[in-house]
Structures are given as structure tokens and as C-alpha cells.
């Protein structure tokens, strides 16, 4: 069958007619398959949701237990038949619980990767390349300018700055699901053993990560109730939006840091008033994108959310058929 | 190279002066010679490397990658040096086991001939990582643009060696990269370098503002008064055929004022004010002077139309004789006879302002005879010429600032301690015909208010935001709504860059006028009238 008959975009999201399901739909639908817990991919209000157990847990934490009519947990690697269409979930290396979804019918296999990265990350299972006919890739950082350095190098810069300015606090902006926990885990892996202070928005998810066996060490709420705490020399992690807010006024002469792949571009850091950009991303950079496309062996590439044109151009130069897949409603919450 | 690259990256994003000083001193402490000295030279603009044109960079990179992908990349990033540093393809088999040091990079670039320059550059880029590539490109395209002045770099050296910055300034022009002897001295490993070069800068003597109640304690008979000219303070040094004009921080500005430098037929060190015009006829206004500022080269026409001259304040050295330890009265006597020997179209003497008591001087200060006078200077008759800003011997007593009532238009988030406050304000005044008034921005200020007032303005900004652009908020401001700020400033310049045609000098918020309706704020004509004075 033609690949576009197996999966194609509809206003609600990517739709599979023979299986009658959507992948990461942005509007409420009957049956949704969800790649990961970021809010632009995982919305509440579907009648039934199929996702990894961890993604279901995360959706429950974010939206409340009644976020969907019914839920079903997909085990990684296990094939599930939906109206004769074989679907299976495989690790995507993006955040805890994230998965690529393979959809196979009548000899045609399409892999929808959701969001993914290839850099090692101690807070989630590593990406597994799946051989397929069509690979649907994200392109958040789909330009040759995006080249993420090793995350350990970025954390070393943060620790160096903390030593250089011991009288100031370092506020690390990091998205609440995934990035924040990864940054904390990286700090621990670099030997930083002082308590980390976190914004309230991170508490539930960080606790969940810890319950899943991801050790983040001692976390303390960054509050000043119960007496004046001194945040001099402290590392504080919170959602980026909080640092522009009045919330940040409790910290002494803070240095604003932001952990994101966007920090590769100096002007982005400058505009955001970021003093210490940390180039740590949960999305594949240019080299990871192009390497992954080759590894999947796919004859055709569909490029979605991000800078499609450059990746399509690269595929053309490599003699791989490629086209942009226009899906609406995805932002880059995860980075 | 990586440590230098990291330093550049940190400096460009660090807004606070103290933060920059910490980064610089840490760098000087942790990096060895000659790299730290070369980095210093790159920052102060004293590193000599043949420039590479942007077009050449573009050619180099598009020989190595698909031009379409390069175009997408450049369109997105917007900065050529940054784009090239990011997209430069690294051939996997070609990565050396270590990146080159700054010293190696500079040596290769300086040794490259004109014709093999691009090849040498490409080889260096091949051998470096992303940050280092960016730094290399910045070195060869000239101008680091990292927000660090030569003055700040010298302050960092002074902090590093715990010496006074005037000591660094005095030595500076006799030294050259990589400044090994200077660092050795600052680290206490060697004697202070001896300066044998000719026509060196002497650290200048500065004054303190007259504070409340200061004058009551002083005897008018102990002080001489002069006008405070609002030009550029310069030091003219001629010795052994070398002629130099220095700014008050010791930067060599001779190149911008060849007309004045060529008239320095003497062997002496003079302190004075650089102004334009012909001192025998008329002194130019600040707008006239502005024509000669911030130019790398100056046309003969410009020199003819706005000739530079020096109004002399002091004489520090004549021939081999250092006069700095003598009292002002004696130096002034020597200056008066010396000034008579100078080219009268290029040099004159700063006249005294005669006064008997502070009250009489106060009246003169309020109504100076020329628009380019910004107040009076008081100098103790018995004061020696000492570097820096000693308290007591010299005072500046400035004219009161101008003020204007303007309306807050945009607010931008601050940095560091103020990163959660909207603390940088763009304000405007009314222009246009009656019934069609529009606010036109006339300046930006970020101090002059108390912490309590900052909180109030911040709240006002958050409550009255109409649009956001990144860290900037556009604030509701029309005939019926708006916060009126009383802005104090020292003067106005003509500006072709600003829509209003004016640019304020040293603007600050002097009062919040919560009581004043926006439509009663000043009009642009009020400011224009100041320009034409």
C-alpha cells in the first residue's frame, strides 16, 4: 500500500485510516497513540490513549488521573494489533518514557519518531534505530548550525562559573519535564553533591523520576518561608519563565543560565538576558538527524515540526526522497 | 584557544562591570604566557593581524558545503562569523588530538602572506572546535565587540596585580604584546618594567564634584577657578620627535586629530581640553565638536571646517623637567609663558574666572558665557599634579542639569540583581500638530531612582503592558494614559540615528511624576530649542 494511505496529516494530527487512530493528536480524538509526555504531544481529553507506562504516569501527574477515558500501556518492543495494523513502541531517548511508534501494514512500515536525540542521557532509555520504509523525523534543530556539544562539557562550565562567583546564585532555566531532571542528574554525575534548589513546578515530576530509579540527590524547594535561607552559591533549577518573574527576586545577584539547544545561537541568549547559556538539548542536532536518517535505511523521509527545508534539501543531496509533513500545533516545549 | 574562546563568550553576555573584571582576572591568573598577553592585546585592539574580508570567509565556507544549506543557516543566524564557526565541516579523519593555542594561532596568522592568508585560515578552522573557530574568525575579521573597553582591561590588570590602574596606564604605551614583563611584575615575580619609550602618557589628575556643604569649609582665597569646558580632556606629549595626543584614560587619539598633532612643535607634556574652532575667534559648540568624534580617519575638508585646537590647563613636563610636584600656582606661571610660544591657531590658555566669594562664583556658574561651558573648576593654588582623583585639591562645580518631562514608552528587563525587574526605560516626548500628537522616543535611562521606586515602576509596567518583544515591553502611553518621568541630562547632541533627531547625554530619571497627566509632558520643540543654543 502507499505510505500516505497508511499515515497522513489531518487537522487533529497524524492519522492512520486502516487502524483508525491518531499519533500525538492536538485535539481530542477516539484513539490516540502518544510518543511522550510533553504537553504539545500529550493532550488530555482523548477517549482512549495508548502510550508507555511512564508516559501515562506523566500525563496523570500533569492532567490528573482522569486525563483520558481509558488507557493502555505499551511495552517497548511489543507488537500490538489495531484493526489489523501492527504498532510497536521503541525508545526515542528524548525524555523519560518517550518512544518512537512503528506502524506496519501490508508490508509497509512507517516509524514516527516523535521527538528524539542520540546523545547519552542517564534519565531515559537510549534511542534505537528501527529499519523502516518511511521515517518521520522531527526537525527542531534541522539546520547545520545546530551542533550540540557534549552535555558534560556544558555542566563543567556551570560548575566553573559557580566556583568563580561564589557570592551569587545560579538560576538554571530548564523545562519541567525531562530537561530539568537531566540537568540535575548531570550535576550529580559530575560530583556535585550539595542540595539542589527547585521551583515548585518541578517538584512532582522530579519526585516521579526519583521513584523510577533516577537518582537526583537531595532536592530542596527554593522557598524562603520558614526563615531566611541564603542562596549565595546555590544552584537553583526552575522553568525558564519563572526567572523573568518576581519569583526570582529572592536570590542574591543571580546569574541566569538556560539549558537549551537554542542557546547555540548567541543572539538568542542575548535577547533572553541569559548570562550563561548551557547548550543542553533533548532534541537531535544536525549531525544526529542526518546520521539517524541514514541508519533507518528509509527510502523516504517525512520531515515535521522545525526547519523542514534544510533537512529536505540534505536528503535531496543524498538522493533520499523527502518531503515536509505539515503538522500543526507542535511547539518546542521540550527544549 | 578554547579558554580564550570561552572568555569571549562569557564577556559578551556578562553585563556587570564587576562580573567582567572577575572573568578577566581569573583568565589572567589561570592562563600562561604568551596566551594571556595576546588575549589582552586582542581585547585592547593592540593585536596586529592582517584582516580577512567577509566575502573571503563566505567563499571558503561555500567551497566546503552546499551553498543552499549555507544560505539557510546564515539567514537563520544572521551573523557571518557565528554561522561559519558553526557550519564549518569537520572531516572526521582530520581532527587533531589537541586544539591549537592562542599563541600558535596568532603566530600562524601573523606569518601568513597576503596570498596564502585564506589557506592558513582554513587550516586553522579545520584544526579547531566551534568556539575556537568563532574566536579565530573574530580575530581575523577585526573588532571583538565584547563590551570590554581598553580601560576596563587595564582595570582588570590592576586588580590582578593589586596595583593602581594609573600605574598600568603610565606604563602601557611603552609595552607591547604579549606583555610578558608586565604580567611578571603583576605576579610579583619581577621588578616593575622600566619605561624607556618616548612621549609616554602621564596619568591625569581628576576632580571631585562639589558636594553639599563642601564650599562652606573652603576658603575662596585658596582656590583658582577656571571654566569647565565640555570638550575632550586630552594630554599632548611631544618628545624626541614623537607627538602623541592621549585621551584621559591613555588611549592614543592622535590619528583622529592630525591637524592638532602636527602643530605640536615643542618638547613638553600639556594637559588641556580638545575643542574645535579657532581659539582667536570663536570656540565651536558641542555639535561642532561632535563632527570630529569617533572617526578613524578625517578628511582634509573636515579638518578645515572643524579645526581642532587645545585649550591648555596645565603643564606637566617641559624638556627633561618634570613639573608635577610643583604647586599649581607655579605650574600655571610656567604654562603661561610656555603657551606664548605655541601656534596661536591651535593652542590657547584656559582663562581664569575671577571671583571673590562663593556666591559671586555661583552666579557666574549659572550663566556661563559660552554654551560649551559646563560649569567651573576649582583648583587649590598649592596643589601638586597627582594621578587619579584625590579628594580636596580639585573640584568640579557643574551647571545644573537640564530636565524634561517625558512619557515612559518601553521598559526592558535588567540583568543580575535586576533581572526580574523592568529597569531600563525608553521615554518620549510629544511631537506633531495639535490633535495628532505622537510620542517620539528621545532617550533611555536605567538609573536615578530608588529601589522602592523601581518596584513601583516595575509594577506599573506589568500592569500596563500592551505588547511584548522578548525582554522588552511596550507600555500604554497616549494622551490620556502614561507615566511621566522627569529626566535630567547634561546636554543634547544632534542625532541622525534617532527619529527625534536628538540624543541625550547622560540621561537619568530625576523624579517620578505620578501626579502629572501624560498630555502635559514636554514637546520635542523644547528639546530642539536646546540644540540650537
Automatic annotation (TrEMBL), chain A:
One of its GO terms (molecular function) is RNA endonuclease activity. Coiled coil: none annotated. This is Putative mRNA 3-end processing factor. It comes from Rhizobium loti (Mesorhizobium loti).
Automatic annotation (TrEMBL), chain B:
Gene3D superfamilies: DNA ligase, ATP-dependent, N-terminal domain, DNA ligase/mRNA capping enzyme, Nucleic acid-binding proteins. InterPro entries: ATP-dep_DNA_ligase (IPR050191), ATP_dep_DNA_lig_pp_1105_fam (IPR026333), DNA_ligase_ATP-dep_C (IPR012309), DNA_ligase_ATP-dep_cent (IPR012310), DNA_ligase_ATP-dep_CS (IPR016059), DNA_ligase_ATP-dep_N (IPR012308), DNA_ligase_N_sf (IPR036599), NA-bd_OB-fold (IPR012340). GO terms for biological process: cell division; DNA recombination; DNA repair; DNA replication. The keyword DNA damage applies. It catalyses: ATP + (deoxyribonucleotide)n-3'-hydroxyl + 5'-phospho-(deoxyribonucleotide)m = (deoxyribonucleotide)n+m + AMP + diphosphate. Keywords: ATP-binding, Cell cycle, Cell division, DNA damage, DNA recombination, DNA repair, DNA replication, Ligase, Magnesium, Metal-binding, Nucleotide-binding. Coiled coil: none annotated. This is DNA ligase (ATP). It comes from Rhizobium loti.
Amino acid at each position: 500500500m502507499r505510505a500516505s494511505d497508511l499515515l497522513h496529516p489531518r487537522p487533529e494530527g497524524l492519522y492512520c485510516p486502516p487502524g483508525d487512530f491518531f499519533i500525538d493528536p492536538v485535539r481530542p480524538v477516539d484513539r490516540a497513540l502518544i510518543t511522550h509526555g510533553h504537553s504539545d504531544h500529550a493532550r488530555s481529553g482523548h477517549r482512549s490513549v495508548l502510550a508507555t507506562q511512564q508516559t501515562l504516569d506523566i500525563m496523570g501527574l500533569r492532567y490528573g488521573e482522569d486525563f483520558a477515558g481509558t488507557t493502555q500501556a505499551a511495552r517497548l518492543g511489543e507488537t500490538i494489533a489495531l484493526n489489523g495494523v501492527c504498532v510497536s513502541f521503541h525508545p526515542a531517548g528524548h525524555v523519560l518514557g518517550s518512544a518512537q511508534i512503528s506502524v506496519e501494514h501490508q508490508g509497509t512500515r512507517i516509524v514516527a519518531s516523535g521527538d528524539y536525540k542520540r546523545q547519552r542521557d542517564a534519565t531515559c532509555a537510549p534511542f534505537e534505530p528501527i529499519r523502516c520504509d518511511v521515517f518521520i523525523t522531527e526537525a527542531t534543530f534541522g539546520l547545520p548550525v545546530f551542533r550540540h556539544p557534549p552535555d558534560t562539557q556544558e555542566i563543567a562550565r556551570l560548575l566553573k562559573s559557580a566556583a568563580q562567583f561564589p557570592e551569587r546564585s545560579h538560576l538554571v532555566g530548564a523545562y519541567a519535564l525531562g530537561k530539568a531532571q537531566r540537568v540535575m542528574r548531570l550535576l550529580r554525575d559530575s560530583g556535585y553533591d550539595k542540595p539542589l534548589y527547585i521551583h515548585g513546578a518541578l517538584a512532582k515530576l522530579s519526585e516521579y523520576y526519583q521513584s523510577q530509579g533516577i537518582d537526583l540527590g537531595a532536592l530542596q524547594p527554593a522557598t524562603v518561608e520558614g526563615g531566611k535561607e541564603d542562596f549565595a552559591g546555590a544552584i537553583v533549577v526552575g522553568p525558564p519563565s519563572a526567572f523573568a518573574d518576581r519569583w526570582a527576586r529572592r536570590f542574591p545577584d543571580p546569574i541566569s543560565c538556560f539549558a537549551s539547544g537554542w542557546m547555540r545561537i548567541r543572539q538568542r541568549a542575548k535577547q533572553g538576558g541569559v548570562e550563561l547559556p548551557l547548550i543542553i538539548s533533548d532534541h537531535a542536532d544536525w549531525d544526529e538527524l542526518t546520521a539517524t536518517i541514514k541508519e533507518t535505511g528509509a527510502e523516504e523521509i517525512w520531515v515535521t515540526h522545525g526547519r523542514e527545508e534544510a533537512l529536505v534539501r540534505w536528503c535531496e543531496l543524498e538522493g533520499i526522497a523527502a518531503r515536509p509533513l505539515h503538522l500543526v500545533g507542535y511547539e518546542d516545549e521540550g527544549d | 584557544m578554547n579558554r580564550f574562546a570561552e572568555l569571549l563568550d562569557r564577556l559578551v553576555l556578562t553585563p556587570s562591570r564587576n562580573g567582567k573584571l572577575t572573568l578577566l582576572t581569573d583568565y589572567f591568573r589561570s592562563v600562561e604566557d604568551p596566551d594571556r598577553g595576546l588575549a589582552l592585546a586582542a581585547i585592547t585592539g593592540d593585536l596586529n593581524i592582517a584582516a580577512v574580508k567577509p566575502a573571503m570567509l563566505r567563499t571558503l565556507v561555500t567551497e566546503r558545503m552546499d551553498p543552499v544549506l549555507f544560505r539557510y543557516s546564515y539567514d537563520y543566524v544572521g551573523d557571518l562569523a557565528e554561522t561559519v564557526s558553526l557550519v564549518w565541516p569537520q572531516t572526521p579523519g582530520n581532527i587533531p588530538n589537541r586544539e591549537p593555542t592562542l599563541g600558535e594561532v596568532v603566530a600562524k596568522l601573523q606569518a601568513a602572506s597576503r596570498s596564502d592568508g585564506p589557506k592558513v585560515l582554513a587550516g586553522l578552522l579545520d584544526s579547531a572546535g566551534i568556539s575556537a573557530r568563532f574566536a579565530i574568525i573574530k580575530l581575523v575579521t577585526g573588532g571583538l565587540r565584547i563590551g570590554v573597553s581598553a580601560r576596563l582591561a587595564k582595570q582588570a590588570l590592576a586588580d590582578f596585580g593589586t596595583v593602581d590602574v594609573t600605574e598600568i596606564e603610565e606604563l602601557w604605551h611603552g609595552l607591547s604584546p604579549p606583555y610578558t614583563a608586565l604580567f611578571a611584575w603583576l605576579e610579583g615575580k619581577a621588578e616593575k618594567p622600566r619605561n624607556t619609550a618616548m612621549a609616554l602618557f602621564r596619568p591625569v589628575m581628576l576632580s571631585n564634584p562639589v558636594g553639599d556643604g563642601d564650599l562652606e569649609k573652603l576658603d575662596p582665597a585658596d582656590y583658582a577657578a577656571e571654566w569647565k569646558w565640555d570638550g575632550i580632556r586630552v594630554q599632548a606629549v611631544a618628545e624626541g620627535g614623537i607627538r602623541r595626543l592621549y585621551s584621559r584614560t591613555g588611549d592614543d587619539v592622535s590619528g583622529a586629530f592630525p591637524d592638532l598633532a602636527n602643530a605640536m612643535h615643542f618638547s613638553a607634556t600639556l594637559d588641556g581640553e580638545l575643542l574645535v574652532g579657532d581659539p582667536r575667534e570663536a570656540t565651536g559648540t558641542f555639535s561642532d565638536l561632535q563632527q570630529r568624534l569617533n572617526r578613524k580617519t578625517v578628511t582634509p575638508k573636515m579638518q578645515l571646517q572643524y579645526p581642532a585646537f587645545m585649550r591648555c590647563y596645565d603643564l606637566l613636563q617641559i624638556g627633561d623637567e618634570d613639573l608635577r610636584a610643583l604647586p599649581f600656582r607655579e605650574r600655571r606661571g610656567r604654562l603661561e609663558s610656555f603657551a606664548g610660544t605655541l601656534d596661536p591657531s591651535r593652542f590657547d590658555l584656559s582663562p581664569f574666572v575671577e571671583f571673590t566669594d562663593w556666591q559671586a562664583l555661583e552666579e557666574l556658574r549659572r550663566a556661563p558665557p559660552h554654551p560649551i561651558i559646563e560649569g567651573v573648576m576649582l583648583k587649590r593654588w598649592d596643589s601638586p599634579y597627582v594621578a587619579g582623583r584625590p579628594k580636596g585639591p580639585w573640584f568640579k562645580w557643574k551647571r545644573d542639569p537640564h530636565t524634561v518631562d517625558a512619557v515612559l514608552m518601553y521598559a526592558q528587563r535588567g540583568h543580575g540583581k535586576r533581572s526580574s525587574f523592568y529597569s531600563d526605560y525608553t521615554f518620549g516626548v510629544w511631537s506633531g500638530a495639535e490633535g495628532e500628537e505622537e510620542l517620539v522616543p528621545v532617550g533611555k535611562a536605567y538609573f536615578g531612582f530608588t529601589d522602592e521606586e523601581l518596584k513601583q515602576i516595575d509594577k506599573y509596567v506589568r500592569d500596563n503592558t500592551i505588547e511584548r518583544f522578548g525582554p522588552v515591553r511596550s507600555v500604554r502611553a497616549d494622551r490620556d494614559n502614561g507615566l511621566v518621568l522627569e529626566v535630567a541630562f547634561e546636554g543634547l547632541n544632534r542625532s541622525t540615528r534617532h527619529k527625534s533627531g536628538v540624543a541625550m547625554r547622560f540621561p537619568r530619571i530625576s523624579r517620578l511624576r505620578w501626579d502629572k497627566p501624560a498630555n502635559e509632558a514636554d514637546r520635542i520643540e523644547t528639546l530642539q530649542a536646546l540644540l540650537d543654543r
